[in-house]
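Input sequence (160 aa), recorded before submission:
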Amino acid sequence: MKVTVILLAGARELTEPGIVAGTIADIALNIAEGPVVIRHGACPGERSADQAASDWIKDCGEWLGVTEDAMPADWDHCAPNCPTTPGHRRRKKPGDTAHPGLLETYCPGAGPRRNAGMTAKLPRPDWMIAFPEPGQPNYGTRNCIRLAEAAGVPVRRFAA
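Predicted structure, token format:
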């Protein structure tokens, strides 16, 4: 039985987070011919695309054969190729929930590294579903879309 691996990326603040659950349910019920794995970046936030996917999978998806492969970014650590110049790391603003970790600073390359890892991890994604939010910068979502397209992963974009 073929497992369908779907890469998911989306905004941190979706206007309609329910679109994520509806899209995954449609894939599981009408498109995939077996189990589905949703690979996402585990971005926190009650209105983030990743959290919407994770919540739905835990609440309903498992009985449809949908599981998650959450790959959170490691904001606390830099990669060996990160610049060592002062100011590379960014100081978290008060109440920052977008860069979870133990340190007061974060590596700005952690998100793109995580996105590259999600795209390259085996088994490779069969396709990607993306949920950019109009009017938001969508930096991480756009980065993940570019990486997926460069790797030959078909991308399907959804908007509320």
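Checked by second reader. The mean pLDDT is 95.
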